[in-house]
Amino acid sequence: MVNSSTSDLSYHDDGNDGEDAMDDDIEDTDYGDDIDDDDECMSDNSGDDDFDYLKMQAQFDNVDLPPGVEASFSWLQPSAVSSSSTTSNVAAQVNVTTSSADGGTSAPVNPHPSKEKFEIASSSSSLANVESRSHEKDESEDEILKKYKAFKAFDIVEDYSDHIYNKNAEVVGQPAKAWTKKVQDEWRILEKDLPDTIFVRAYEARMDLMRAVIVGPQGTPYHDGLFVFDIYFPPKYPEIPPIVHYYSGGLRINPNLYESGKVCLSLLNTWNGEGSEKWLPGNSTMLQVLVSIQALILNATPFYNEPGYERYTGPEGERRCNEYSENVFIMSLKTMMYTLRRPPKHFEDLVAGHFRVHAYDILESCKAYMEGAQVGSLVKGKPLDGKIFKKMTPSPTFKADVAKMVNGLISNFTRYGARDCEKFRCAQ
C-alpha cells in the first residue's frame, strides 16, 4: 500500500472487437446513461443477401420486358424509397430494343437503360449524398473537439442522481457554516490549481458530493486511461477526511483500488501513515487527495504497492513487476472500453474528446507492447525520455488479450471520429 505524504508531493505535468470478452470481466456500475452495447461491426448480416435479392426482384415484378432481354439495375438506390415508387421509377427508366423483320430496330425498345442519363443522375445523386454525409460527419467531429477543448477542469453542475453517495449519504439538516465554508474553500482551490489531467464536478444542490476523473499518467500501465471517483464530504469534515469511491467495474487494477470501490490511501486514513502522510484537518485538501491518487497509486510500478512485495528484487522482482504491469494494462484497456460505452454523467464531452485525441497513441502503444516493448515505457507511442526501450518477450496470453481489446477499441474510437485506427486492427 502507499503512504501519501502531503509535504513533499508535487505534481509534474506530463504535457504530454474484444467487447464481448471484456464484458465477462467488467461488472455493470451505476453512473451514466445506458447506451447500446451492440457493436455495429460485429452484427449478424447473414440474411442480408437474401433480403437484397428479394428487394431487387420485387422492383422488376411489374416491368414488362420481352423474353431474353436483360435489364440493368443500379445498386445505388436511396435507402428510404418505397417499393411502389422504386418500381415505377425503374419501369420509367428501363427501355428495351427488339429487332424488326428487316433487321432494323424499333425506336421504343432498348435492351439497357439510357446509361448516360441514368448513370449520371444516379452518380450525381449518390455523390451528393456521400458529400452531404461526409460534411455532416466532419461537422460532428469538429463539434466533439470543440466541446473537448472547452471542457472545464472544474465546474458546478446540478444533476447528482447517479452519484454513488446520492441516497445513502445525505447531509442531515442544515450544514454548519464552518462546514460550508470549508467545502467552498475546496471548490476555490480546485478551480484555481487543478492540473490539466484531473477534472472535477461539484453539485450546487449537494455540496457534500463531488465527482472526479483522473487521467492515467504517462510512463505507467495506466497511461491515457480515464479513472472515475465519487467523493463525499461527511458532516464532520474537515475533522475527518472525505470518503472516496472508485468505479472499478469489478477490476482490481491496483492493490490500493479494490473491486468494491474502496480507495486505500493514508491521506484518507484508510491506510497506515505518519505525520503529514495522514489527513490533517487544518492543512489537508481535496486537491492533495486527487494528486496523491494520481501520483502514488496510478504509478509506474503498481506491483510494489502490495505490502511485503518490496522483498522481490533483482531479476525475479523485475519479472514479477513486468507481469503485474501487463495484467494492469489489460484491465486499463477494459476500463477504457467501459468508459467509452458508459461515460459518467457530466463528463461525456471529456470522454469523447479525450479518446478521439489519444486513440492513435493508445493503439500505437498496444502494437509496441505486443512486439516486445515494456508496458509503461512509452509516452505518446514513443520511448520514454527518448530512450530505446528494453526488448522483452511478451507472453502469448498477453498478446492475444491485447489484440482482442485493440479491435474493440478501434470500433469505439472511430465512433468518436478518431482516424488512422484501422491499420492497427489485429487478425483473429
UniProtKB/TrEMBL annotation:
E.C. number(s) listed in UniProt: 2.3.2.23
Keyword Transferase: yes
Gene3D superfamilies membership: Ubiquitin Conjugating Enzyme
Alphabetically ordered keywords of this record: ATP-binding, Nucleotide-binding, Transferase, Ubl conjugation pathway
Biased composition (Acidic residues): 16-51
Residues that span the membrane, as ranges: none
CDD domains named in the record: UBCc_UBE2O
Signal peptide: none
Keyword Glycoprotein: no
Annotated region (Disordered), positions in chain: 1-53
One Gene Ontology term of the molecular function aspect: ubiquitin conjugating enzyme activity
Domain spans labelled UBC core: 178-337
InterPro entries xrefs: UBC, UBQ-conjugating_enzyme/RWD
Domain of life: Eukaryota
PANTHER family recorded: (E3-INDEPENDENT) E2 UBIQUITIN-CONJUGATING ENZYME (PTHR46116), UBIQUITIN-CONJUGATING ENZYME E2 38 ISOFORM X1 (PTHR46116:SF18)
The protein, known as: E2 ubiquitin-conjugating enzyme
Organism encoding this protein: Oldenlandia corymbosa var. corymbosa
